[in-house]
Structure formats: C-alpha cells, structure tokens
C-alpha cells in the first residue's frame, strides 16, 4: 500500500478539491436553478470538501491568485489550470483579490455565494458583491479581506513577525555612495532603453573596456532568456485553455457529425443559415430551398420547433428566458420525450440518447403497408385479367343467343370487371390522398346516368342477397360537375 501523502500535499489537494467542486456547482447552475436536485447534490459535496479543508486550518481558508497560481492561506497549492475556468472567471469578473471561508460556513451561505458567482457582471446586484452577501445574511464568507505581499530574500523583518499585508521597508543594505534607488552617483537610467540601461550599468561595473562588450552580450542573452521564460509562464495558462477549447470543439464536432439527429444553424432572426444532410431529411427540404427562410416557415404538421425568444445575449440587461414552441398537440406529445442530451459535469455536450418515437414507428408501419398494398394489387391484376378475358370470350360466343336479362348480367359483369381493374389501379391513390396530392377530373355529367351505372353494378349482388334494389330519379335534375369514375365508385 502506498504511503499517505505529506500533510502539505494533502492540504493542497483538499484546497484544490474545494475549488473544483465549487466550479462544478457553478456549472450545474448554468443549466438548472438553485433548488434543482443536481445543483443541491453538487453543492453538498462542495460543502463537505470545504469542511474537510477548514478542519486543517485555524478556522479560516483564504484563496487568492498570483501569476497563474492558486494561493491558499499564503501557500501556493497549484496552477489555476488545474481547476475549471469558472472559478478564475469569478475572480476576474468581480475584481477579487481574495475569498475567505470561515468555519461554520452553512449550506445557505454557500448557496448565496454561488448565486453571486453565477450573476452576470453587469447585473445590478453584482456592482457590490460584499453588499449582496451581507444582504443574504452571509457572515462566514468574506471578499477582499486578505492581501499577501511577496518578500525579497534580503527583507529585514523576521518571518515570525510578518503579517498578511505587511510590506518590508526599503533599503536595508544599500552601500555608502549609492544614490536613491541604489544607483551610483551621477548615473540615471531615466528615459533609457533596456539595452542602453544595461550598457550604462556594465560600463560602471566593468572597468576594462575590452570585456564590456562580452559582458553586455552575456547580460543581454540572460535577459532575453528570462523574458522568454516569463512569457512562457504567463501564457502557459492561456495555451492550456486554448488546447482545452480546441479539444472540446473537436469532440463536439465529432459527436454532432455522428449523431442521427440533424443540426440547423440560424441567425439572430431565426433564419436558416446551414443544415446538415440529416437535418434536411428531418425538415423535408434541402438547404438551397430553406436558406434565408425562418425556421418555422417550412415546418410541417409532423415537426416540433423549439426556439428561444431571444437568440442573442444582450449585454445591458438580463435575457428573456422564454422559449417558443410550435407543433400540433399530438406531435408535441409524441416527440417531447424522444431524446436526451448527454453532458459532462462541466455542462459540455458529449453525446445524445435517442429513442424510437411513435412517429418513427408509424412511418415504418406506413412503409410496410405501402409495400403490402403494392404486392396485393400486383397479385390481383393477373386473376382479374383472366376473368375479363373469359367474360369477353363468353360474350363473343353467345352474342345474340342470350336472353335480355342474361345479356344484361354479362354486360354488368364486364363493366364491374373494368371497374374492379380501375379500383385496383386506384388503391395506390390512397397514399396520394394522405399527402393531399389526390387529383380528380370533373366534367359536366348527367346525374341519372351516374346513379344508373352505380345501380346496375350493385344489382347482381342485391339479387343474390334477396334485396329489392330500385332506382328513382327526378327527370328534372340538372347536370353536375363531377368526376364520373370517382362518383360511381363512391356511390
């Protein structure tokens, strides 16, 4: 078993955990309200870590930042890059030099602190963060109450007498003959460039002129290396944050690219700028057809459109959080629980879970139905053609030999076989009816002739069933504008 970490390392880890869990709480609050179970659970864990860290102090835990480093109670505990950027942003947004937590800090006080941290910098309450906390009854969280000063190696004050905020006196060892600031008498660096100042100092320090150029070059080299090192240290956090953002962007793009769901990009007015192929299938139109149109303009009854009331974030007031939803009630009820976004504890989207909705099942059943109807109509055409051919043969062989009633029955059978063929060919029109694309061809027709044809086609069936079917037509009926085949089919 590995040995327990030294107390200093353990304290550093406890302090970093406090900052990380506070950042996780802020991440949850960017998505949910304070009373949400997810926020409450994360805040409880932050409170537990804070209590554990305070147990290793004299009752106070003070955090501050300096050159990309986290400082807890005057000791460096790690780099700011080790914690989410939201905590660093909290210090920068409210111009804080320190945050002090005292023993006895309650859950309600942490809630008030997190509400402050989640505020926009231009919110009225954020103008005076101390007053906001005081108004919430917070007594164990203090802002800007501690200042730490870095002391040089030659500081005259002993370490045990130094207090936070104390600044050592200047001087303490300047030799005789030195002017104010420790420079030789008669030498002034005011108005000189860095290179000129170095040359002046080297001239005073090195008597031999032959060695001055060599010393100057070496000093310039050291200064250059030191500047480069300091620049690398200062920009290290920026480079790390840039790498994190690039990695998150690449990950998000890969996730979206492999989603079954489509992606639509709109401008601040809600007009479509970009759609991926999956979105084109969902929306039912191509990007060329939808570009420049409002998102709701091309939506059908099968679509559920959810759009924020304000698509841009104002910088002078709080945003209106309302969301507009456009959909039929059945569509909304079916689709509202069809998918869920997967995000990490920092609120970043890392995936998505989707379930097969009722609409998708319905469309699949419609496809199966269309395939079945197409198969049935194909199978019906062959025997119907044989029946039609047989009736035509009988009509040709017995032409003039049949009684009047028998001839009518044969003609009726031929007409009904023709009607049946038309009906089989029209079965596929049901899909056109569903999509609103059904076409009819109306013309001026005699209503008595339409009714008579329908009567004659159904009379053999009525006779077989023992039903007396009669047709009574008012001779003064006017002509009607109707599709004859469709009308007889309906009758």
Q: Alpha-carbon distance between the termini?
A: 91 Å
Number of discrete helical segments: 15
Largest sheet features: 5 strands, antiparallel
| Rg over C-alpha atoms, rounded to the nearest angstrom | 43 Å
Shape: elongated
The computed structural class is: alpha+beta
State the share of residues found in helices, binned by percent.
40-55%
Can you give a write-up of this model?
The chain has 491 residues and is α+β, with helices and mostly antiparallel strands. Helices cover 49% and strands 11% of the residues. It has 15 helices and 13 strands. A five-stranded antiparallel β-sheet has the order 3-2-1-4-5. The protein has a two-stranded antiparallel ribbon with strand order 6-7. It has a two-stranded antiparallel sheet with strand order 8-9. Strand 2 and strand 3 form a beta hairpin. Helix 1 crosses helix 4, helix 6 packs antiparallel against helix 7 and helix 14 runs parallel beside helix 15. The radius of gyration is 43 Å and the shape is elongated. The protein starts with 6 loop residues before the first helix and ends with a helix. About 6% of the residues have low confidence.
């Amino acid at each position: 078993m590995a040995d327990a970490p030294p107390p200093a390392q353990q304290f550093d880890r406890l302090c970093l955990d406090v900052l990380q869990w506070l950042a996780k709480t802020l991440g949850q609050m960017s998505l949910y309200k304070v009373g949400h179970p997810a926020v409450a659970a994360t805040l409880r864990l932050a409170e537990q870590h804070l209590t554990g860290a305070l147990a290793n102090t004299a009752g106070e835990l003070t955090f501050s930042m300096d050159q990309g480093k986290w400082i807890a109670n005057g000791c460096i505990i790690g780099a700011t890059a080790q914690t989410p950027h939201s905590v660093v942003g909290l210090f920068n947004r409210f111009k804080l030099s320190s945050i002090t937590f005292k023993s006895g800090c309650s859950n309600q006080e942490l809630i008030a602190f997190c509400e402050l941290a989640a505020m926009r910098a231009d919110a009225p309450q954020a103008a005076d963060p101390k007053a906001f906390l005081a108004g919430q009854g917070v007594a164990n969280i203090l802002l800007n109450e501690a200042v730490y000063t870095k002391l040089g190696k030659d500081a005259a004050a002993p370490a045990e007498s130094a207090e936070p905020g104390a600044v050592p006196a200047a001087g303490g060892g300047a030799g005789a003959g030195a002017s104010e600031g420790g420079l030789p008498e008669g030498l002034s660096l005011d108005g000189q460039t860095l290179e000129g100042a170095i040359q002046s100092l080297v001239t005073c320090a090195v008597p031999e002129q032959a060695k001055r150029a060599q010393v100057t070059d070496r000093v310039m080299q050291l200064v250059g290396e030191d500047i480069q090192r300091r620049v690398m240290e200062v920009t290290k956090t920026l480079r790390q944050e840039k790498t994190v953002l690039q990695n998150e962007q690449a990950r998000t793009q890969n996730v979206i690219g492999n989603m079954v769901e489509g992606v639509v990009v709109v401008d601040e007015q809600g007009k479509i700028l970009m759609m991926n192929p999956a979105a084109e299938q969902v929306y039912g139109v191509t990007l060329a057809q939808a570009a420049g149109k409002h998102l709701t303009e091309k939506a059908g009854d099968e679509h559920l459109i959810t759009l924020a009331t304000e698509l841009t974030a104002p910088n002078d007031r709080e945003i209106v959080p309302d969301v507009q939803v456009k959909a039929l009630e059945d569509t909304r009820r079916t689709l509202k629980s069809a998918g869920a976004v997967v995000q990490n504890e920092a609120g970043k989207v890392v995936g998505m879970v989707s379930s097969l909705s009722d609409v998708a099942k319905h469309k699949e059943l419609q496809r199966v139905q269309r395939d079945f109807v197409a198969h049935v109509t194909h199978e019906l055409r062959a025997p119907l053609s044989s029946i039609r051919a047989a009736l035509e043969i009988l009509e040709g062989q017995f032409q003039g030999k049949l009684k009047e009633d028998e001839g009518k029955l044969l003609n009726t059978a031929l007409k009904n076989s023709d009607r049946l063929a038309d009906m089989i060919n029209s079965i596929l029109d049901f899909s056109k009816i569903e999509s609103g694309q059904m076409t009819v061809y109306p013309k001026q027709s005699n209503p008595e002739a339409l009714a008579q044809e329908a009567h004659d086609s159904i009379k053999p069936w009525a006779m077989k069933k023992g039903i007396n079917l009669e047709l009574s037509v008012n001779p003064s009926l006017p002509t009607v504008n109707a599709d004859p085949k469709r009308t007889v089919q309906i009758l």
